[in-house]
Amino acid sequence: MTQVIIASQLDEDYNDVIRQRLAAHHPQAQVIGVPVGVPSDLPPQANILLLRPINVRGYSAPDTPPPGWPYGAEWVHLVSSGIDFYPQWLFSGPPVTTSRGSAADNLAEFALAAIFAASKHLPDIWVKNAQWSFTPLRPLKGTTLGILGFGAIGERLAHKALALGINVVALRQSAAPFGVEGVQAAKDIHDLFARADHLVLAAPLTEATRHIVDRDVLGSAKPGLHLINIARGGLVDQEALVEALDNGQVGLASLDVTEPEPLPDGHPLYTHPRVRLSPHTSAISTHSRHEIADAFLANLERYVAGLELANLANG
Ligand SMILES: NC(=O)c1ccc[n+]([C@@H]2O[C@H](COP(=O)([O-])OP(=O)(O)OC[C@H]3O[C@@H](n4cnc5c(N)ncnc54)[C@H](OP(=O)(O)O)[C@@H]3O)[C@@H](O)[C@H]2O)c1
Predict the structure, then answer these.
(1) Is 261 a catalytic residue?
(2) Residue 228: what pLDDT?
């Protein structure tokens, strides 16, 4: 029987959910809580690592792994979808998998919430006294949503938007079909920005996508575009964005992610009248501990059965 001893950087209430779920099918399994950050001095008996993002909030891990890495680990599972928050050396050892898709519905819903808030003037229309006036609210039906990146998030968002009568135009890296009936393909990123009323960034941050939304691309935007970033702040050249907001090329930016995070006090994006900023919260839900457990435990069953792991980030 395959040993299941997990060293986990998750909070204990998250670990408890995993323990409870393991109890039925893997009563011998153990979940040992370990500190967050660069994994070091891990219990040697742990063959599975459950890791949280490392290079966050201004911290940057050393370029080389700690002595003894990867300890007894045969498989490393990341609680995030993106892999940009981890040092390179993490991917040159045992198989590394991500939680890709585990929060895709939450992220898609958040993007739609930003679109609803903008179109329906929320929360500004709530009244607090008898001075009622009527604001014409913009319909969503018949508008065009652009989606940059068509993976787990893009696909969930497209389904929901199409159900609302929104036209969906998308761009992905590969020539793979979108697999969602009704999604139109943009010719390129300029075409995507020119056609969209609302545009959601749902691509990973890589060398190729850093500042993919630059001055040139923003110059192609349909005037008054609503840009929504729920992916990574580094996708956007923020200086160019502020310029585009100032000159009205971009009418509104709903940003759940920025670079750096958090932005320093006094940063212009905090106070710009055309910016709505949230603190990288779009994926976090009241069900996160179950969503993270679902993704991990589904892969654990593959691991125990000797099958190929899903959502591999290396190998
Ligand atoms: N705010 C949060 O807390 C949060 C939570 C989850 C994820 N995220 C971010 O969102 C990103 C996307 O998540 P996901 O789960 O949807 O990832 P995913 O399933 O891996 O999909 C990524 C998509 O981006 C596309 N892509 C890659 N490079 C591109 C490029 N240069 N131009 C256009 N499209 C490109 C890929 O195209 P192909 O399919 O054609 O290769 C793929 O469709 C993650 O990498 C992460 O950074 C943020």
Answers:
(1) yes
(2) 99
